[in-house]
Amino acid sequence: MRVRSLRACALTLLVSVLFVFGASTASAQRKGEYLTGSELDLVRENQIIDVRAEIFLKVADRRLVALTEPAGPTGDSRSRKYGPLPSGSPVDLLDDYRKTVEELMDKLDDEFERTGMTDTLKKALESSVSEMDRQLAVLAQIKTKSTDPAYASFHRRAVEGATQLRDGARDALEPAP
């Protein structure tokens, strides 16, 4: 009887370990996949914060364009360097949008911690405020684009991320008391 319960415990432990290992492996594989190859190249090539911010803002906007006009043009010659519009379900595109916005917030925070408020960081923050205002208006327009319950949840998180970026950037631009 005791051997059987030890085997059951060992089997349960093994399954748990495999589940945790499998989940961490799957999450590691997913990391970074929200950027297309061209977008990832642009991020890697551009290390100055104001240029990086513009890239992340454009990447986020491309997810909104893919949601609103998936067969639409990629835009002017500056936009073509980003490659074709990303594809995926509306939920995937909203999740990728949120990840892009969150990564930009991390980049802005890291830059401030390393350098303090510089002219390039100020420019990046100003761009973020104005672009998030515009993108929040687009997000408001597509709030009811789908009746899928998951869409509503992912849309809410995308709006929260965009709002957090806009408000955080706005606060950072205010003079210290």
Cα-to-Cα separation, first versus last residue: 71 Å
In angstroms, what is the radius of gyration? Answer: 20 Å
Domains (count): 1
Structural category is mainly alpha
Instruction: Tell me how many strands there are.
Output: 0
Main β-sheet description: none
Provide a count of the helices: 7
Report low-confidence residues grouped into runs of 5 or more: 1-32
Strand content: under 5%
- The outline comes out as globular
What is the helix content?
Answer: over 70%
Q: In sequence order, what are the helices and strands, one letter per element?
A: HHHHHHH
Mean pLDDT metric: 82
Task: Give a nutshell description of this structure.
With 177 residues, this protein is an all-alpha fold.
Question: What is the topological layout?
Answer:
Layout: H1 2-30, H2 37-45, H3 49-68, H4 77-80, H5 90-115, H6 119-141, H7 149-173
Mind explaining what this structure looks like?
This protein starts with a helix and ends with a helix. It has one domain (about 30-175). The chain has 7 helices and no strands. With about 180 residues, it is mainly α.
Q: Which descriptors apply to this entry?
A:
single chain, 177 residues, mainly alpha, globular
